[in-house]
Amino acid sequence: MGFYHLLQSVLRDFSSILWTSTEGRASLREVTVALPSSWRTDSLTCSLLTPIAAASVPTDAHIRVETPHPVFGVRPWTQQSQGCGYSGDNIQLGGDLLRATTNNTYDHVAQLLMAEWAKYRWGVFEERGYPDDPLYPETYLDPVTNNPRPNRCLQQHSQIVPFCPTGAHVPEAPNKHNAQCIGRSAWDIIMQSKDFMNGRNVATNTSAPLIPVVNFVQETAPRFVLVVEDTAVMNLQRRWEFVRKAVRRVMVYDVPDGAHVALVIFNSMAKTTAPLMKMESLSDVRQRVGSSLPRNPSPVPESHKCVLCGLQEGLRALSEDPAGASGSTIILVTTGKGMAPQDEIDEMERLALLHRVKVDAVIYPVTENRGTRTTTHGLESLITATRGNTFTVMDEGVGNDSKVNMMVALMNALFSAVRHSSPPNASKVPVLIRNEVYQGGIASMATGSFTLDDSLGPDARFSVFYYDLNHVGNTVQLTSPSGHTIASVNMQEDGDANVIFVNIPKAERGIWQYQVENRADSHQGLHIQVVATESHTRKISLRLWTSSESTTINMTDPQSPVKVYAEVKDGIVPVLNARVTARLQRLGTNTTGSNYNSIVVELFDNGFGDPDITGGDGVYSRYLPVLYGGSGLYELSATADYNNGLAHSPVSDAFPGRAYSERERATCCGSRIKYEYIRPVTPFQRSVVYGILDIVSVSNGNDFVPPSRILDLRCLVNQTSRDISLRWTAPGDDYDWDRAHHYEAVLASSWSEAKAFAGERISGMPAPVLVGTEQSLAIQTDRYEQAIYVAIRGVDEAGNRGGVSNIALMWVPRPPTTPAIATSPRSLEPTANMAQPLGHEVTQPVRVGLNLEDMAVIIGSVGGFLIVMAALATFCYCHVAKHRRHQHKKDQDRMEGNRNIMIKTNSSLMIDRDDVHDSQESNMKDEVVLSKDGRPISPMQSWGASKLLQEHERRISVTSSPNMEISGQVNSCQNFQDPFPDVTLISTHPYPTTQTPSTTHSDPPAYAPYTTEPHTSYSYPYHPAYSHEELPPYTPPGLPSQSSQASTVYTQDIASQPSDMSYQGDPTNFHTEMPSIIGEISYCQAPPPMYAPYPDQTSYIPNAPVKVPPPVAPKPSVTARAAAITSPTSSVEPKRRNVTQV
User: Average pLDDT in the 45-51 region?
Assistant: First the structure.
């Protein structure tokens, strides 16, 4: 079956399903199918009963046949940017679906198409869940049985009707339709639409639907007629000159090749100055049409103008074309004053609808008193009826002169009208890449950049518009992405359009830089624009519109808020994560004569539900902010770019000719469209002007705008711990602007109770954060094993309450042992301090229904536990402290009993060099321990007197030499008659008068400097045995025997070289058990002046004995050990001289 007959069969079945679904209220009467101009229709014409008509393609087609979508494939799907009850944007389906359709499958295609038509036409949504969707799951818990239940109609309805009947509708099911329409059934929404409300299109007794008539048309080039007012008002200042320059610029540079253009002027009558002609770059047609306006305006007064005459003349110019006027655009340039009578406006509306033309109005110029609202032009109904646009240019005169802003604004308005009227698939349509204004007054360099991407055609044009040629300096420079410079010598001038421009053929892709010397006056400036054309194979498009069907907006009506939408697409796929910014610029000047500040509106594609319905569809949206600047005319424009490399687009895995399969039967998507493959988008920039919004009423200072609805409320229940987490996205104060004041939330036992926002209030709600930020709340409840419905809403500071959120359902299992705690029916409202932001953190858990008795028990238990712990800690501390004091006293008593005797346990033998470092570290540690807490801690053992003497006798018994060599020789001391054993007897001695005794033993006593006074050497024999009774206490000469608060003996480790007190004999004769010899020096004549500082260690000289100076106060330095004996047969024990504090 041919394409034509297949399409007719699908549309016929579609009309039948539409008739059945609406119970005999609607069916298709006529369908227009627009074919691309590149299609050959010879073979197709043979199978048609009627010839193909040539006409312009409607710019707002209901159904678009495209290439397969990355997610939906060839399956039809509806792009819905607005909420419940509002029409969608369009329906898209893959062409392969029609190619693969047979006699057995076209009825199924018609059913799919009918399901999407209900969404597009009447604003209903899907009534089932989606796999892995966080808001609209495939199944949910049945509130009665607690079993998983399919998220769809109550019972499986007929496959013919694409929506749930009223009796089968489940309002509490968590699907997209219930969230957007607050539980209303799809049939209720359809019956309230403009097609059926107030008794329109009632059911008839006709038993069969209409068979639609299918008309095939083929795309043609766009056709425009400029109808320009020529009255005496244009003779003021430079108004008419600016009209001529603007018309020339658009005709010569902006109208795409192949377009047909005519030019008509009117005052009290109308005439055609340029008939409908085809624009071609290789001929002089553009120049002739652009110069066809009269050089001087007409003297006819503005009050005598006939707008109807101009429209009729424009239709007459279009009728000369064989294709007729259908699908053409009339661009009407008029002042807007001297409004035509209502009967003339009605006649213009009738003629425009009859000939199927669109009328765009450019109101030029609009005059107003500073700070007051402009008057209306009276053409609003005509523009709305023909789905046209309105562009306004404000009068910016300076005395008898006019600003360049006025001329460029008129050029931009004509450019936008041409751009909007071009068919979607038209080739070489101009695209505005960059539009910047640089004010004059100071000599400066206007610098900036623009981006050219692969979706643009090969050529681009860089233009500088000026008021006077002298306002542009000598420097006009362009720098390509590769660094190539285009200087002023390559620039061209067109004084008839006040522009200096350069054409860039085969322009390099990437980011370009420019510099222009600005010499304009303070009330003038320079305007820089970059324009390119769209590519034949790929294009990145930016489309801008609002939710209002009229350009006249009443901001004081909270029931009809206005939303701004921008669509960014790369071909048929959306551009994700782009930076899209809308701008509202009030026209005119304020009371000081300055321009109004522009209002910047950043748009988002986040899928939060209000206002953005679906995330990832490429539609960026936001509420129009409250315009506190006053009523007036506001120009709405938008820009989009690649967001510094963060933007990306999906990649389709489908290919041409792909057969219809089960993959195309899958449904998608709920809150967000998920793509499997994405790729970065090349750098791009786009700008578009929507037109003028006529704000007729604004706030008088009273806040009447509520917060936006929360439509992503989720309940997460941990089945093990029974913790409940509520998550949602913060709304704004005025719709989705700023932040709300506080939240209100309820727990309800039924869906209807939650919808009415009744039930138990949740206290302790967190303070709202900035709009668009996710917030969380952890709660607990004792409502076990029952369905709990949760609803939330935002409240602003003025008390305006937002709509009830989507109603979330949760089921909490009963704990195995913990009994349920009764809840209290009272409610706790959030406190006033909740207006402070909390950031992004999760709020602390609160318990729902906790009464005063429960709080008293909890507080008492916690307080008692803390008291017991404090008492236990106090007892432990006292017990440990008492034990330490007792032990310290015992240690002191033990020390007092053995205070005069100390044994040295280490010998002064030579040790290996490797052991020196370890011994030094050990001694250093011992010193630290001595002074840490005041208690004497020594590495040596402290014994009683009898034990000490027994040990000394044991050691003496193994000594083979009766004499010791001190300082290399054996001497005898005449003053010492008693033998000197290996025991050091110490006595207390006072500190010098300049020192204060230390009670903590943390610092050693001070010592006098060392002197080299001569002394008499002495020798003493060793006796094999003696008793301790024969050993009197030893007191060094010259020291008193009085006791002191502390008594300390400081000894030093022997140096690594052989000392005066080391053995000079054969080391092999040393016995391993040889007792240690303390090298204490006895002075025979005079007492020493204490110990001198110990000098630094000298270099090691083998076999050279050196003297070891006495140790130094306050802390003896650590020296190295004696050098190791090289004999392999010797066994040497390390010698350590220790510090003992008694």
Answer: 54
So what's the pLDDT on residue 796? Answer: 94
Nearest one of 943, 524, 564, 516 to 737, comparing CA atoms: 564
409 pLDDT higher than 90: yes
- For residues 811 and 918, membership in a common domain is answered with no
904 with 890, same domain?
A: no
For residues 204 and 206, give the distance between their C-alpha atoms in angstroms, rounded to a whole number. Answer: 5
Q: What pairs with residue 580 in β-bridges?
A: 603, 640
Residue 632 near residue 587, CB atoms below 8 Å: yes
Last-in-domain residue among 425, 453, 478: 425
Q: Mind listing the pLDDT tens digit for each residue in 155-174?
A: 665 566 788 888 888 898 99
- Residue 218 and residue 54 in contact, taking contact as beta carbons nearer than 8 Å: yes
Residues 570 and 487 in one domain: no
Q: What is the pLDDT of residue 58?
A: 54
Note whether 442 and 524 are within 8 A (CB): no
Indicate if 71 and 148 belong to the same structural domain: yes
761 confidence band (pLDDT: 50, 70, 90): very high
Q: Are residues 1038 and 919 located together in one domain of the fold?
A: yes
User: Does 533 fall in a domain?
Assistant: yes
User: Hunting for tokens 């309805």 — which residue is that?
Assistant: 157
* Residue 367 exposed, middle or buried by CB count within 10 Å (0-12, 13-18, 19+): middle
Question: Residue 661: inside a domain, yes or no?
Answer: no
199 φ/ψ sector (left φ>0, alpha ψ -120 to 50, else beta):
left
Q: Which of 717, 733, 790 is nearest to 767 (CA)?
A: 733
pLDDT of residue 88: 93
Given a cut of 60, whether residue 992 has pLDDT beyond it is no
**584 and 521, same domain (yes or no):** no
pLDDT digits (tens, 9 = 90+) for 423-434: 766 667 888 999
Domain presence at residue 704? no
Nearest to 513 by CA among 458, 459, 462: 462
pLDDT value of residue 925: 41
How far is the C-alpha of 578 from the C-alpha of 1118, rounded, in Å? 73
Q: What is the CATH number of the domain that holds 504?
A: 2.60.120.380
Domain co-membership, 397 together with 356: yes
Tokens of 632: 């007036």
Our count of domains for the chain comes to 7
DSSP 342: H
In terms of phi and psi (left: phi > 0; alpha: psi -120 to 50; beta: otherwise), the region of 558 is: alpha
Q: Do 883 and 909 lie in a common domain?
A: no
Does a structural domain hold residue 662? no
Q: How far, in Å, CA of 911 to CA of 917, rounded?
A: 11
Could you count the other beta carbons within 10 Å of the beta carbon of residue 321? 16
Residue 634 CA to residue 600 CA, distance in Å, equals: 12
Peptide bond into 1004 cis (omega under 30): no
- From the list 234, 237, 285, the residue with the least C-alpha distance to 260 is 285
pLDDT at 1089 over 60: no
Widest CA span of the chain, in angstroms?
153
- Cα separation, 951 vs 288, in Å, equals 132
Q: Which of 197, 217, 237 is the last residue of a domain?
A: 217
Contact in structure between 775 and 729 (CB atoms under 8 Å): yes
Q: Which residue has the tokens 């008068």?
A: 993
**Dist. CA 1106–CA 1101, nearest whole Å:** 9
Q: State mean pLDDT over 37-59.
A: 59
Domain of 837 in residue numbering reads as 714-846
Rg of the Cα trace of the chain?
50
Task: Report how far residue 605's alpha carbon sits from residue 598's, in angstroms, rounded to the nearest whole number.
Answer: 23
Give the per-residue pLDDT at 180.
93
| pLDDT, average across residues 360-380 | 76
pLDDT at 862 over 80: yes
Measured distance CA(117)–CA(18) in Å, rounded: 9
Q: Which of 6-15, 88-97, 420-429, 1030-1039 has the lowest mean pLDDT?
A: 1030-1039
